[in-house]
Amino acid sequence: MNERNDKTASIEDEAFAARAKERFDQSVRGLDGQTQSRLNRGRHAALAELQPRQGPWLQWAPAAGVAAAAVVAVVILNGRAPVDELTPLPTANDFEILLNEESFEMLEELEFYSWMDLEAELDDDLDGNGNVG
Amino acid sequence: MSVVASEIAVSCTREQITGTTELHKEQELNRFLAEIEKRALRIAEISIRDRDEALDLVQEAMIKLVRNYADRPEAEWTPLFYRILQNGARDWHRRQIVRNRVMVWFRRSKGENEDYDPVASAPDPAGRTPEENLQSAEAMESLELAVAALPRRQREAFMLRTFEGLDVAGTAVAMGCSEGSVKTHYSRAVHSLRKTLGEHWQ
Q1: pTM of the model
Q2: What ipTM goes with this model?
Q3: Do A47 and B39 touch (CB under 8 A)?
Q4: Closest residue to B39, CB basis, from A28, A43, A45
């Protein structure tokens, strides 16, 4: 008698569960487009978790790129006019000499100044030998 | 030359395999989540009676599943997902209890009439009785209210077994209890619902 009651209750429970499931599935199918869209966005946000994350050092990548570009620019600009460390840089005095009017006169009378140099050397040689006064 | 070339080839092949595996995993997870998300939303909504909050809970559960359990076998995803979701719903209820306590404390300083909601208190315009309501197209709403009124463990067992279709073992994993407890909670839930909704509920 008890067994029959239990069996009947079990069948009724199953029938009730089946009806409940049917109602539930209907409500799932009736979800509006906006809700489905939000679920879709949520799913894609979750799947984005699979993508490898940027390391903290990568946050400095833009700044490092700018710094590297600046270094390269400096190197290139310096490379255009290589400076010989043994050659002294021109000073203000050098420019004064070059721009002096006398300098131009010296260039015009270059042969005269060459003769004077030659004479001076000859005098030195004679003095060094002690032969002449 | 040949050694270097073969090493490069092996390295490329490994990368391709890794990429293919990850793509395959992503596709599997996408399919799994797309298949489960609507039912999960309705289950969460029935539990906390708020769609926006339910959407947040479902998204949170999806993120946690992908972040922590993507490498687990696919057969484990469903109970794990619902375990995360149930924990989220439980935390939500706890927060609500605290919030309600605070709100009750503030309401004491207000007049009693401010709690009166004329819309909620208005009679049903269709003039239906509760018995007629059970037989109407709003049967699901009645079921939802009855399920929401169940004790938490009974509610979880009923929704996971009936709505999601998990077996006893899967439900036990999702609820974090023994299979015997699942059977007990489920049986009590069904009896309680049948009693609440009546024999003529369709």
Answers
A1: 0.63
A2: 0.75
A3: no
A4: A28
**B162 reaches A (C-beta below 8 A):** yes
Task: Give the single-character DSSP code of B124.
Answer: P
* Residues of B with Cβ-Cβ distance to A26 under 8 angstroms: 140
Q: Is A36 in the B-facing interface, judged by CB distances under 8 Å?
A: yes
In this structure, whether the domain defined by B130-202 belongs to CATH 3.40.640.10 is answered with: no
Please give the Cα distance from B39 to B163 (Å, whole number).
Answer: 8
- Partner-chain contact A45 B39, CB within 8 Å: no
Burial class (CB in 10 A: 0-12, 13-18, 19+), B187: middle
- Residue B59 contacts residue A42 (beta carbons within 8 Å): yes
Q: Are B185 and B155 in contact (CB under 8 A)?
A: no
The model's pLDDT over A56-104, given as tens digits with 9 standing for 90+, comes to 555 666 677 778 888 877 777 666 555 455 555 556 666 565 556 555 5
- Domain positions in chain B are 1-110, 130-202
What is the CATH T-level fold of the domain B1-110, as seen in this structure? Rna Polymerase Sigma Factor; Chain: A (1.10.1740)
Closest to B40 (Cα-Cα) out of B166, B187, B126, B201: B166
- Token pair for B124: 């049903």
Pairs of residues, one from chain A and one from chain B, whose beta carbons lie less than 8 Å apart: 84
Residues on chain A touching B25 (C-beta within 8 angstroms): 50
